[in-house]
Structure formats: structure tokens, C-alpha cells
Amino acid sequence: MTDSSNQPTASRRKFLTAAGSTAVTALVAGCSSNSDSNSTEAATGTSPEATTSEQTESGPPEEFQVTITQGTMPTTLDPHDHRDIPTDITMLQSYEGLLSRTAEGEITAMLATDWERVEAGHVRFSIREGPTFHKTGNEVTPEDVAYTINRIVDDSVGFTSPQSGQLAGVTGAEVADDGRAVDVYSDGFNPIVFSEFAIYCDVVEKAWVKDHEKSYVAQNMNGTGPFEQTEYAQNQSVEFERYDDYWREPADVSHLTIESASDSGVRVNQLVAGETDLVVNVPPESFSRVEDSEASVEAVGSTRVIYNAMKATVEPFSSPKFRRAMNYAIDLEAIIDSALQGAGGQTGQPTLEPFFGYNDEADPYPHDPDEAERLVEESGHAGVSIELHTPVGRYLKDLQIARLVANMIDELPNVSCEVNQRTFSTLAGELTDSDITTGPDFYLIGWGNATFDASQTINPTLTSDGSLTSWKNDELDQLIEDANSTTDTDEREQLLREANQLCHDEAPWIFLNRQYSVYGTSDRIEWAARNDERIDAYAISPAQ
Amino acid sequence: MGYARFLAKRGLQGVFVVWAVVTVVFALRYITPGSPVAFIAPLDAGPELRQAIAESYGLNQPLYVQYGQYLWDLARLDMGQSYARGTSVSAEVFAALPVSLELAVASTVVAIIISIPLGVVSAVNHRQPSDYVATSLSLVGISTPNFWLGVMLVLLLSVQFNVFPTSGLAEIDGQTVMFVDALRHLLQGETRWMVEWLAHITLPAVTLGTYFTALVTRLTRSGMLEELGESYVTALRAKGLPEALVRYRHVLKNTLIPVITVLGLQLGTLVGGAVITERVFDLPGLGSLLIDAINQQQWMILQGCLIVVSAGFVIVNTTVDALYAYVSPEVSAE
Question: Which of A350, A395, A434, B37 is the most buried (most CB within 10 A)?
Fold first, then answer.
């Protein structure tokens, strides 16, 4: 917090509750994650000039049709009735929130021009004048914004929104006295309230929503964004036209189609045959096929880290030496090269770069089988047999990664290791029953972190009362508790850096790869992939 | 047995079959590890949220209560709601059904058009070059796995030469084009819709129909050969009947009984069983729906699919039996 020295200290519990549920978003589908953020969130902000995509001097091209193919179709077109990334990507073409994030992760203005913290639990957004709704042509009003927020957080307005947890802590909103602003109230301090509004809160038109059946709102979009939705065939496609009265420069793309194909091979075929311009999740084995055609592969680090948890309450994993040995035993570079064709980053701590609290001194463990063998001897567990549980098909190449890890450990003369394939739901069921004694001792899993803040990875997965924890370490618990209760940004960052160093040294995980988002893009478009898995068609322009 | 009694008996049998399927699926829930809640809930959801989710879908109830409730809803033609998405199971299933039906019928048509003439040619020209060509072709067809064939057809004809689209349903102006739409527009003199529909259905139909073509060719050939050796054929020829009439009016008709049986059974299988072809061509049919439901532990959708598939089987089998009665009257006399 930049100017929060006078603010009351958020209690740890409240912070965890609020922030935890924001981070959750990333995990629902195993293939999703959310808007990035950093926790150096400003308590106030002004940014009347929102960033726009590159626009040519002469204005947008007349005719520029683009097709995007995702893995699944949106489940609904109601912007407040979903929690998955493919639906989100569809929404953001047409609907806009108060705040957003740039590709670099900075909070930026959308339908709000200013945002400020009035007092603990009370923030105020000034609403932009000018943006209009596609279907009615009416200008967006503070009343629409207040209704939108209440539609999400208040069950008595319309329905129970699955996004209510995403605006955690927010209790309601009302039009402010001056008539051009909206006051938003929260339970307690709510330190991450602006981060939340940068992810969720697509503004709808109050009268339009109230005038129509819920099923109509679920099949038609009426936003203020760069594209107006024109057609919707459920499970088939959504079509958009460029909105010429958009409040920023009109988009380059004149006609946008969003389709889906669940099979990655089908998506690659469509791209190579020129039927689509942008596809998600190109599998590593298809990289060369895409590159050989009139398209290319675009890979960018996602917010998800893949790791092997070692339950520290049972032998042999209770020994830090043994856990370190497991990290020395694997050749992470080789794993990423062979299983992922290089599309992955090496990690040596729970936190990814450039998250808040990342420690640039905690490097990945080198591959050193001799050191691994020696440490196993020293730990007193030589000759032990271990079993690595892995889900199949949940994360990119999860089974292949687990097999490579197990083989490399098995090659140590004093440890033998096997892979146990599991269905994700059974594995997850055992891990998330809030009982550390159930579930496997050694398992592969992934963790996505929506907030770009180290605490939201370490809290749930490594602290003693984390819902998914495999470790009990008093020093770490203390570091995280201190970090979550300080209002001094620098001190907080230092504490989180120490926590990451501790995790590196004590090695509660075998640190594996950062998962990449891999896209295939046609050579006729220009577009840069983002860390937060958003595909913003407004940022697509014709290739020069 | 009267025709009405026959139908009533078959109808009751059908209800019994569907009930048995539902019951078996419910029993399977006992032995299937994992709970749908693990899929619906976020990984770090607390026990309270899990409990709330289980309650909202009735998953915390004992299985016999869920079973009773489901049967009761089913009796009122309500197949329930999917988990998490909250969509109506009937809507999902009945949106997928026409896609699978079109594919099944189209591939059967492909099979019939190719295989019956091929079988006849092969039998009539027994042990001549055309017979060898036909039997070799059917051998190749029967031994080509259709997932491989599908992928190869797409790579060659769609990706390489751009003759057909790679995947998906036909679409014009954002509207999905099904056969009925295409036909309606064709009758109004607009050919574009039918062309588009044909372009999209051809590769999947050929992929799925090939195995089938081979099978039916061989059946027709052996059936014809057997019938041609019968004494009634000699009698017909002695009577001076033209050879064409002998072959097609009498011999082929008698050969068709096993062919219709196989076609009927296959059609039933195809409706729910064209999983691989639907995947390769990304067709949102019942097979795709079924696989997704299994992967995501969407029991309600799984049940909905199985009910429709089993009902489909019953209907197809009953129709096949009715056709028997036409082709061979002594069947209905049993």
C-alpha cells in the first residue's frame, strides 16, 4: 500500500479469507488463471488515458475478420454467471468493468476514471462519461454500476452470482452524493479491493437487465466494449461486429468470431488450414507443424506452477536432506525439453517471477545425482521405495513429467520410485478434505495464482492451516503471518522473499516447471500473448 | 401375434431396458472413486463450501434417495440439471442428438450406396478380377481403424488441399446448418446451404461409413453366393425369368435380411458410439457429450445420454424387427 500508513491493520484471518477466494478462481478448470496483479496496489489511482492497442494513423482497416478458437465455448453470455476463463475471454470483447489490467499487470482505468479509498471498507469510483451500451445506445450511469456490483454481491438482487467470492468482502454499492461516482462498501479494511475490481465486475445496463428474462441476458450481450455481439449459437460460436461508437479508438478487427474445439489436434488443423487465426493450448508435439505453416507458436509464462509435494509429516519426506536430495536427483531442464519441447520455465521456489515477493536468489536446484545419493545416505533413508501420485490430463503433459521425475529418482542407487496414475477428482478429494493424514505422501499438482502475490501461493499450499498443505513449519507460518499483517510494502516484500528462500532451502516440494500458455497465431494477425490468459481481440491488428 | 400386441410388448421391454440402464449407472456411482464435488469446487474450497455444493445438488443424500428422486423426476420427463453449469440435461442431450443422428444416417447411406452394389458385383462375378478387387477393398476397409482414417482424410483433403473443412458443423451467417435447414433452403432454390452441409458431413460420414461399407459388402457377397446356389434360382431361371429380375428381385431381396439386421444394429451403435469420429471432426454430438460427462463426473448428463442411447437402441431394434416382417413374412408368424 503506498499511502496506507494510517489505515488499520488488516487481521490475518480476514485477509486470508478475502484474498484466498480471489486466488481460487485460477483453479476451477485446471486450465485457467486470472488477471495478474501485484500487491503494491495503489490505494488511489487516476488514469483518464486508458492504454489502447496500436492504432494506425489512418484509423482502423475497413475489413479485417478474425476467428479465435478456444478449448470450450462459453457456458453463458451473462457476465455475472460464470467462473471460467473461456467464458471470461468471450465476455471481455463486449463487456467492460470499472478497472482492468494492462498486459504488464498494471491496474488501468476502464469505466472508472478515478478510484480512491475514502476510509477503511469504503472506496469510491468516479464513473466515466461517454461510453454507451451497444443494444440501447444509452450512456453508462453510476446507477448502472451500482446495480452491477449489487447484482454480483447481493443475493437479493437477481440471483446468486458465482463471482460473489471474487469480490470478496464487498457488501454493496450505491450512487455517491455528487451523482457521478459510486461508493463501494466492504467488510473490514479489504486491502485487495481494487485488485478484485480489476478482475471482475462487468458493467451491465440496469434497465436492460431488468426488462429482460434471465435466459435472454444469458444469450445476448449488451456491453460498452469494443465489440458488439451479433449472433450466438450455443456450443457453436459467438459473432461480434466492431462497435464504431466505442469510447476509445474503434478496434482494428471488424468482425470477430469465437469458436471452440475440444481436441487440440483439431484446433491445430483449423489453424494450419487457415480456418482460424488464433488457437489456445497448442500441444508441444504440434509446434513444428504450426511453425511450418503460415502460422506461428506463441508461448508465454502463465501464473501456474507445477510441483511435487512431499508430505513432511511422514518418513522419508520428514527429512529436509531427503527432500533436497529429490530436487538434486531430477534434471529439470531435460524434463522441460523433452516433455514440453522447451515450453516451460524452471522454478526453485513456490513463487513465480515477477510476483510480489519473488526471490531472485533462490535458483532452481542443479542436476546433481551424486549429491542426491549422498544426501539420501545422510538422511538415513537409503533403500526406501516411494510412489509418486499424478493426475492424468489435468495439467499440460502431467503424466509424462511425473514419469520422467520418477525415472530420474529411480536411477539413484539408493531410492526406488514408481508412478501411480490417478483421476484428478479422487486425488483432489483426498488432498482437500482438510486432513493432512489422508491422501498420498508424494504427488504432482499445479497451482495457479490470480493475484501475482507470493502469499497466495504459499498460504494455501505450505502454511500449517493451508487447505492444500503438505508442510508444517513454524518459521514459515510466522513469516507469512507477519507479511499478511504488515502495512509496510517494503517490509512485506522482504518477509515474502525470506519465506521463498526458506521454501527453497527446506525443499517441501520438488520444484518443477512454470506452465506456459501456448497459442498458435496465424501470420495474418499481430498479437502478443499475456500472462493472465486473456485474449483481448481489441489488441489484435493486421500483420504489417 | 397381432401387430398392436407386438408393439406394446416391445414398448414395455424398452422401458425396462432404460430403467435397467439408469439403475446400473446409479449402482456404478458406488464403486466410482471421487465425488463430483471435487470437480465443481475450487481446490482450496473449505469444507463448508463443499458441503454447500453437495447440498445444492442433492449429492449429500443417500444414494437410494437420489435414485428415487431421479426416477420420480424422470417419470415426469425431467432429466434434471447438469452440475456446475446448471443447464438442463434435456436441452444438452437433445441439442447433441440430431448431430449424432445425422452422422449415423449419413454414414449408413454412404455404406449402403457403396457396399450393396459392390457385394452384388462381387457375388455375380464370383472368382473373377472384379470380385477380387471388391473383396480386397473391403478387407482394407475393415482393417482400417476409423480414427486413423479420419485424421488422414483431414490432413490430406482439408489441411493439404483445402477441399473440405477440417471440422465442426456447417454454419452460415452464424446459424448452424442441419440437414433439415439445408433441405428447406434447397426446396426454395438456394443450394448454398446444402453444399455447405455436404461439405461438412462428407468426411465424417466416409470415415464412419468405411468400416461399415466393408462389412456390408462381405455380407451381401456371401449372402448372394449362398442364395444363387439355391434350387429356387434354378427354377426361376428355367421359367425363363430375365437374369436381372432373378438377381435383384428375388436373390438380393432374400439376401437383405442379415444385411438389414446388421445395418440396424450398427445404426443404434453409431448414435451413441461415434465417439472417436465426433472427436476427430469436433462434432458436438452425443458421443462427445458422453465422454465429457465421464471425464467431469457429470452424472446427470451421463444418465441423460445413456437413456437416449438405450432408447435409441430399443427403437432401432423394434424397427428392424418390423422390417423383417416385411421382407420375410414368416418372421412375424413366430
Answer: A350
Query: Which H/E stretch holds residue B120?
Result: helix B89-124
Residue A381, min C-alpha distance to chain B (Å) = 32
Q: Are A131 and A245 in contact (CB under 8 A)?
A: no
- pTM for this prediction: 0.79
Select from B44, B174, B175 the Cβ nearest to the Cβ of A467. Answer: B44
Question: Are B44 and A274 within 8 A, CB to CB?
Answer: no
User: How many angstroms separate the Cα of A230 from the Cα of each of A160, A200, A241, A257, B193?
Assistant: 27, 23, 7, 10, 20
User: Using a CB-CB distance cutoff of 8 angstroms, which residues of chain B are in contact with residue A25?
Assistant: 42
Contact call for residues B294 and B279 (beta carbons, < 8 A)? no
Which residue out of B282, B292, B301 would a mutagenesis test of the A interface target, given it has the greatest number of A Cβ atoms within 10 Å? B282
What Å distances lie between residue A493 and A358, A359, A449, CA to CA? 8, 9, 17
Residue A459, min C-alpha distance to chain B (Å): 10
Cα A270 to chain centroid distance, Å, stands at 27
Give how far B233 is from chain A: nearest CA, Å: 52
Q: Are A253 and A64 in contact (CB under 8 A)?
A: yes
| Higher-confidence position of A379 and A432 | A379
The four Cα atoms A376, A382, A385, A389 give a dihedral, to 10 degrees, of: -10
User: Strand, helix or coil at A184?
Assistant: strand
Helical spans, DSSP H, in A388-488:
398-410, 424-431, 455-462, 474-485
Tens digits of per-residue pLDDT, B233-259? 889 889 888 888 888 888 888 888 888
A291: burial class by Cβ within 10 Å (0-12, 13-18, 19+)?
Answer: exposed
Which of B43, B47, B175 is the closest to A428 by Cβ? B43
- The SS3 of residue B252 is helix
B50 contact residues in A (CB cutoff 8 A): 432
Q: What phi, psi does B185 have (nearest 5°)?
A: -70, -30
Residues of B in contact with A270 (CB under 8 A): 166-167
Mean pLDDT of B158-171: 87
- A113 sits in which H/E element: strand A112-119
- In the predicted structure, residue A14 carries a pLDDT above the cut 60: no
| Cβ-defined contacts of A175-182 (< 8 Å, 24+) | A175/A142, A175/A143, A175/A146, A176/A124, A176/A142, A179/A142, A180/A126, A180/A127, A180/A129, A180/A142, A181/A124, A181/A125, A181/A126, A181/A127, A181/A142, A182/A124, A182/A125, A182/A127, A182/A142, A182/A145, A182/A146, A182/A149
Distance in Å, alpha carbon of B215 to nearest chain A alpha carbon: 29
SS3 for A512? strand
Give the model's confidence band at A329: pLDDT under 50 very low, under 70 low, under 90 confident, else very high. Answer: very high
Cross-chain Cβ contact A233/B46 below 8 Å: no
Give Cβ neighbours of residue A493 (< 8 Å, ≥ 6 apart): A356, A357
DSSP, res A350: S
Exposed / middle / buried, residue A119 (Cβ in 10 Å: 0-12, 13-18, 19+): exposed
Top residue of B48, B87, B167 to mutate, by most chain A CBs within 10 Å, is B167
Q: Looking at the predicted structure, is the pLDDT value of residue A52 above 90?
A: no
User: What is the amino acid identity at position B114?
Assistant: I
Find all residues with CB under 8 Å of B309, minimum gap 6, and list them.
B271, B272, B286, B290
Pairing of strands A442-448, A415-422: unpaired
If one counts every other C-beta atom within 10 angstroms of the C-beta of residue A505, the result is 11
Query: Is the alpha carbon torsion for B11, B12, B17, B21 positive or negative?
Result: positive
Task: Give CA–CA dist B135/B125, Å, rounded.
Answer: 12
Phi first, then psi, for residue A238 (nearest 5°) are: -125, 135
Residue A236, all three cell numbers: 457453436
